[in-house]
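Q: Structure tokens for this one, please.
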Amino acid sequence: MNPHLGQLQPYPFEKLRALFAGVTPNPQYKEIKLSIGEPQHATPPFIMEALAGGLKGLANYPTTQGIPALRQAIAAWCQRRYGLELDAETEILPVNGSREALFSFAQTVIDPGRGHVPLVVSPNPFYQIYEGAAYLAGAEPRFLNTLPENDFAFDYGALSEAEWARVQLFYVCSPGNPTGKVFSLDDWRALFALSDKYGFIIASDECYSEIFFDEASPPPGGLQAAKLLGRGNESLVMFSSLSKRSNVPGMRSGFVAGDAAILKKFLLYRTYHGCAMAPPVQTASVAAWNDEAHVLDNRKQYREKFAACTPLIAEVLGTGMPDASFYLWARTPVADTDFARGLLEYYNVIVLPGSFLAREAGGVNPGAGFVRIALVAPLAECLDAANRIRQFAEQL
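A: Here is the predicted structure, written as tokens:
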């Protein structure tokens, strides 16, 4: 067996099941699950119709590069959304959701033969795929704590000069999971400078990019930031997804875009990996990327939920509106694991302990003492859950 498999930690939801073992939820309340970032808004009917209409494509093997219409639809969306002029032939690849691509990307770009163990850097707390991707590529993950008192900025000084010289890949998540932090142009400028100095690749995870609150100020993407700062796409690849944007997590559809030289190698890897997108999914994805009306409605629903629920929860927990995404990152008055367990037992609301989303670095686990609350359920359920959270916290 691959020895690196032994380095993988249990996934956060495995830890959650273990934490809840033996807990009997209060039967007076219906379960409300706010622990997983799974969109629960209805899938737009036109996407389902396009999926069904593409079923005849099942008679053919799909190409790894995807059909031209899909790459062109993605390029057109990137132009509308970010003002980018991307080459649909060389700078865009469809992928089966950003999670799959974030993992396989590390397997492509990490070079373990440089005489030292490569480092893969990510924010802390973080999306656990980054860590697993690093281990299974033969690299060592390193975590930079992002703390609310520092506006969730990276602590670049936590790595020594020698450690920076070993960095080959840096994962960024903006808007961030779980904090909702959006990278500013100044943030990107600082990271680009480090990439130029030490020669590492930046993987920009932007799967929450379309969940934001001010239509006049959408979060900037990594490629957009590079353009605004007068740079090219060298050593930079963005990862995007339809899952949150279009409420189709089961379709497993997204794309990567950026440095053409890197994507050429990534396409080679993926050709052998056997991860071409199914033809009906490609057809439905074209329809989804070409439409923006359903995305505007999606954001409207999230704005309503955050406006209604955030003040209620903020009365008893340390939280506030995120920059973007659909999470509240809330400080708890007791240990985050105790809070989550008690909330389930007494009020049948499920949230995720923040310590499950982070690793100890610099002597602290930056997720400890927080819970992640995913406002993905319908408005009425989110409001009900917010009131239950408030009642529970007031008793502590």
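A few notes: The first strand starts at residue 32 and ends at 33. The first helix runs from residue 12 to 19.
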